[in-house]
Amino acid sequence: MNASFKQLQQQLSQIVLGQDTIVQGLLIALLAEGHVILEGVPGTAKTLIVKLIAALISADFRRIQLTPDVLPADILGTNIFDFNSKSFTLSQGPIFTQILLADEINRTPPKTQAALLEAMEERQVTLDGKTLTLSTLFWTIATQNPLEFEGTYPLPEAQLDRFLFKLVVSYPSKAAEQQMLLNSLSGFEPRDLNQMSLQPVITVEQVLEARQQVRQVRVE
Q: How far is CA 117 from CA 60, 103, 181, in A?
């Protein structure tokens, strides 16, 4: 199992250049069942890292672009009345996934933030009095842009407690940027994961098994 995670880390570091510390922090959080805030300016591969992890462990992935007009129902889902069956059916929101990327979490109002953070803590959502369980793997990575604060809603300390880490994504080194240019000239397109022909390194079931092993570790 340890060898599989080392292989996962190596493959991520080969694609996302110059962010080895961020990759390591994300994998630690994945094993420790902890949600993460990635804070960094646009263009530092925050979304790419998360999409790659999802692809390499064969996990379902969804991304929410959070804005001031996003409502809790846009994340959790809503019950829709079906005139044919004369009953309500649940239209599930993007939170019903295994890996969720909440992009720019500080740009959505506190009411919407609270709906998301409640699901992170309880691993479940309640809609119209009915409790629905989320995926066992359920893992949230939220992003923030540290440069622009106008029109934002900073998370209170009590809500920041939902996250295990805040990882600050900085610019890569000069050597890493030069290698990125060479990769781009050779045809590498980070927006198209299909061209990479990625093969899963481990499965979701193996990640869950590894989490169980982590829980058994005791620090005296």
A: 19, 14, 38
